[in-house]
TrEMBL record:
GO cellular component: plasma membrane
Organism: Streptomyces coelicoflavus
Taxonomic lineage from the root: Bacteria, Bacillati, Actinomycetota, Actinomycetes, Kitasatosporales
Membrane protein topology class: Multi-pass membrane protein
Limits of the NfeD-like C-terminal domain: 85-142
Protein name, per record: NfeD family protein
Entries under Pfam families matching the protein: NfeD
Entry annotated with the keyword Cell cycle: no
Amino acid sequence: MNDIDAWVWWLVAAAALGIPLVVTAMPEFGMFAVGAVAAAVASGLGADLVVQVLVFVVVSVALIAVVRPVAARHRAQQPQLASGVDALKGRQAVVTERVDGSGGRIKLAGEIWSARALDTGRSFEPGEEVDVVEIDGATAVIM
């Protein structure tokens, strides 16, 4: 065991920390792996074991303290530009065939869509402007 340099053990630790990173998709393991690589570099430069462990701890904690909040902010942000069916929610449409709780047709974004009324007791006549509340499959729900 003494035949192998400490920097090799740090690289083995980094690789071992990379395995749960891939399996669990927890980025913290990757940050610990980077800390182990930093400790391997410190070992390769001749630092003693105490300095190597301090480098590992400082780099790992710094990465967790800096990267995690940034990643959480990015994960919580909604996309700036809505696309697909999300872009159709809230838009106005024109009724082309009578729409009630059981169905009908509207013209939405230049295309004819099947539609149904959100309030099943309400009906909309051709020519009326309506608001799209949601898209359910290939059917627009209007009010």
